[in-house]
Design goal:
Chain A is an alpha+beta fold. Chain A contains four helices and seven strands. In chain A, 38% of the residues are buried. Chain B is mainly β. Chain B folds into two domains: 34 residues, no CATH class; 68 residues, Beta Barrel (OB fold (Dihydrolipoamide Acetyltransferase, E2P)). In chain B, the strands form three sheets. In chain B, strands 1-2-3-4 form a four-stranded antiparallel sheet. Chain B has a four-stranded antiparallel sheet with strand order 5-12-10-7, with no helix packed on it. Chain B has a four-stranded antiparallel sheet with strand order 9-8-6-11, with no helix packed on it. In chain B, a hairpin with a 3-residue loop joins strand 2 and strand 3. The chains are: A alpha+beta, B mainly beta.
Chain lengths: 171, 122
C-alpha cells in the first residue's frame, strides 16, 4: 500500500477522486477543511483526528451493497480490539461510542457498465479535545471518552490491514 | 415473371409463378415449389430495434441525488450523467457511449430500481 500524506486538504475523498490513484493507495490528511459525509454533510475534521481515503479494487456491482457495512464492521472491530472499547455500529455507516458519533464512512463509486473507481473515506474522531457547541451532544472523540491519546498512525495501519483482509475475502 | 440473374459469373434464367398451391420458382431447368402451408411462419419475427438509440439503465437501486446533464446536450463516453445515493454510498453514473441526450427519465429525488431507464441517448 502507498500512503500519500497531506497536512491540510479539502477532503481526502476529493483528492482521491481528482488524482485517481491505483487500488490500495491511501490519502491521509492531518486536517480537512471541507470534510463531508453523505449528502455532502459537513464532517468536523480538525487536527488530531484520523482522516483517510482508501482506493478500493474494482468490485462487482452486486458486491457494493455489502461494502459500507463491511468497512463499518472493520472500523468497529479495530476500535474494539486495539483500543479495548465497545463501539456501536449505527447501520450502515456510522460508529458510535457512548451514544455519540465517533467515526463515519463514506463510500463513493464511479459506475458505468461496471465499477470503474471506488473509494472509502473514513473519518475517526481520535484526539479531538473539544467539539463546537452544535456538535457537543452528538459527537465525541476517543480521547474525550478514554482520556487517552490515540496513536493515529498505529490505528491507521491496523485499519488498513483489517479492511484489506475483509475486501480480499469478499473478492 | 421472368428475369435473368448472374451468380458467380454464370447466368441463370429465373421464372417466378404464383399458383394455387404456392409459389413456383424455376431456375434453369430446376423447379422449386414453395407451398403456402409450409412456408407460412407463425409470427416468428425479430423485434424491431433502433440501434441508433441507446438507453442508460440504473446499475444499482437508489435515490437520484443529482443530475449533471440536460436534454439536448452532447455527452462524451465516460462523462458523468447523474449521482445515485444507495446504502449511504454516493455513486456517480457515467455514460458508456457518446451521444445526444434525447430524454432524461429521472429527476433529483426519484427512487430508481436496478435496470430502470435513466437516460436515452441518440
Amino acid at each position: 500500500m502507498i500512503i500519500k500524506r497531506y497536512n491540510k486538504v479539502t477532503s481526502t475523498n476529493e483528492i482521491a477522486k481528482k488524482i485517481k490513484p491505483p487500488p490500495w493507495t491511501v490519502i491521509l490528511a492531518k486536517e480537512q477543511t471541507s470534510g463531508y459525509g453523505k449528502e455532502k454533510r459537513f464532517w468536523f475534521s480538525p487536527k488530531g483526528g484520523l482522516y483517510f481515503t482508501v482506493v478500493l479494487p474494482k468490485l462487482e456491482i452486486e458486491d457494493l451493497n455489502f461494502l459500507t457495512i463491511l468497512i463499518a464492521y472493520s472500523v468497529a472491530k479495530v476500535i474494539k480490539e486495539k483500543l479495548n472499547l465497545e463501539p456501536f455500529i449505527k447501520l450502515p455507516n456510522d460508529i458510535y461510542l457512548n451514544q455519540k458519533k465517533v467515526a463515519g464512512i463514506l463510500i463513493e463509486n464511479v459506475i458505468g457498465k461496471k465499477v470503474l473507481f471506488s473509494i472509502a473515506g473514513i473519518g475517526i474522531n481520535t484526539n479531538i479535545d473539544k467539539f463546537p457547541e452544535n456538535l457537543q451532544n452528538i459527537a465525541t472523540s476517543i480521547k474525550i471518552e478514554t482520556k487517552r491519546k490515540v496513536k493515529n498512525f498505529e490505528l491507521l495501519k491496523a485499519l488498513l490491514f483489517e479492511i484489506k483482509g475483509q475486501i480480499e475475502k469478499m473478492k | 415473371m421472368r428475369f435473368k440473374i448472374q451468380f458467380r459469373g454464370k447466368e441463370y434464367e429465373v421464372e417466378i409463378k404464383e399458383e394455387e398451391r404456392g409459389v413456383k420458382i424455376k431456375i434453369g431447368d430446376k423447379e422449386f415449389l414453395f407451398e403456402k402451408e409450409k412456408v407460412q411462419s407463425k409470427g416468428f419475427f425479430l423485434e424491431k430495434r433502433d440501434f441508433s438509440k441507446k438507453e442508460i439503465l440504473a446499475p444499482i437501486s437508489g435515490t437520484v441525488s443529482e443530475v449533471f446533464i440536460k436534454e439536448g446536450e452532447i455527452i462524451e463516453k465516460g462523462q458523468r450523467i447523474l449521482a445515485l445515493s444507495a446504502m449511504k454510498m454516493e455513486n456517480e453514473i457515467v455514460s458508456e457511449w457518446k451521444g445526444m441526450v434525447k430524454k432524461i427519465y429521472v429527476k433529483k429525488g426519484d427512487v430508481v430500481k436496478k435496470d430502470d431507464k435513466l437516460v436515452l441517448l441518440e
